[in-house]
Design a protein that fits this description.
Blueprint (H helix, E strand, L loop, with lengths): L1 H8 L14 H18 L6 H12 L9 H21 L15 H9 L2 H21 L4 H68 L4 H27 L30 E6 L7 H21 E2 L4 E8 L2 E8 L2 E2 L1 H4 L4 H12 L3 E6 L5 E8 L4
Helix pairs in contact: 1-6, 2-3, 4-5, 4-6, 5-7, 6-7, 7-8, 7-9, 9-11
Amino acid sequence: MSDYLGSWWRKPAVTDAPRRVWRDWPLVAVIVSASVIEGVLRPDIPWREMSVAVSTGLAFMLPWRRTHSLAVAAVAFATVMSLDIAEAVAGVESPGLISMVYLLMLPYSLWRWASGRHAILGTALMVVTAGLAVVLDYTGLADLIGGYAVLFVAAESGAVVRGQAESREQAVSQAKSQERERLARDLHDSVAHHISAIAVRAQAGQAVSATDPDAATDALRVIEAEARTTLAEMRSLVGSLRTDDPALYAPNPGLAEITGLATANGVVPVSVSISGDTDSVPETVGTATYRIAQESVTNAHRHARHASRVEVDVAVESGAVAITVADDGASSPERTDETGFGLAGMTERAALLGGTLKAGPRTEGGWTVQARLPFEPR
């Protein structure tokens, strides 16, 4: 219990608590009308004018119950307590107005909108007020237990609704965070791949422009193609942020698109080999396979110095896809240290599907990435 109250004591107020809304004023009108009608029709209330005045006056504070929960509760229950004391001193036994049941909205508002500290302090004031009412006009144990039970049910209802709202907010926040991570991975895996290819081809074009103009022209053509692909992928990623954009429903790349990584010309030729029953591979595994192969080829272009080839081998086995990407280049220091987002992203993709990924230098020279992604055949 102490841990529960301690956690609530540190809880801040709800920042987006709604201010006075139009529905509050019809509510106030109904309460005022009910209080006046009850005061007129009930002859058993000795201080009818005073009771009706208190009930109607406090009703006008209800529109501020969300943004000033403690202040409204303190004024309301202190006023009720003062009226009870005055009636006790005067020797008047008043059953009170039934219409004042609306005060149960105040403990609800405290635990729904106020800070935890204000909620606990306000509830303590209500408990004292209820206890004083029992002392001044004790009507039996059943009424005592029932009164406190109703008070705490109202407060607990506010706490439950607040907890549900916070859970929904956390779920939305987590979903947004996961979507940001997905977009970051896609930007790195797809767009960065093409940007790297553009940079490599531009460097190659500059190196041969003086001695081999045709090779430089070919490099420009490749750069143009890569730029167009990059633009298309950027539009797709941006479109995925818009619910009315057709790009949201564009299919993800899969095993069939891996063949597009193959290049016979350029700085580092890439060969692709795919074997096995590719139709049995689920879409999620196929997309992960493509991204791992794409990122591995990108890393080879970036870091494999003096490489003469990059080999991509994808084998669909019984219940798993095996990916191997190998080059014969000398690894740069950055690659040997296995730093950067690329390797982490590939490892994360494999782990999310229950697979494994290893990357490191080969004994015969070069670098290899090996991944295994399990799946249930379709």
